[in-house]
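Entry for the shared binder. Reason: the reviewer on the internal report wants the predicted structure included alongside the sequence.
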Amino acid sequence: MPKNKYQIRFLKIAEDDLTEIVSYIAADNPKAANAITIKIEKNLELLYENPLLGRKPRDEEIRKLRYRYVIVQNYIIFFTIENKTVYIHRILHNARDFKSIL
């Protein structure tokens, strides 16, 4: 019996995050930019299959926003789940101040 798949939807700002990340890395190392793109895509495929694989944040303020996240190298993909859709909200470097951004 086939699994129920989830839809993946990027918010515009998350699309911009991904574009900025890849462009920034590609300026110095196009192979590394391609590698991070592939890793992010693989993680999104996992979310497509089962978004509950994403962790809940420890921070109570962020948790109240119903975010879950997955870590891909130095980047964190923040998302929410509504019905059968995974909404990608942000893709941020782990050194950034999430509370002020989210």
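Summary line for the report: Residues 19 and 54 are 22 Å apart (CA to CA).
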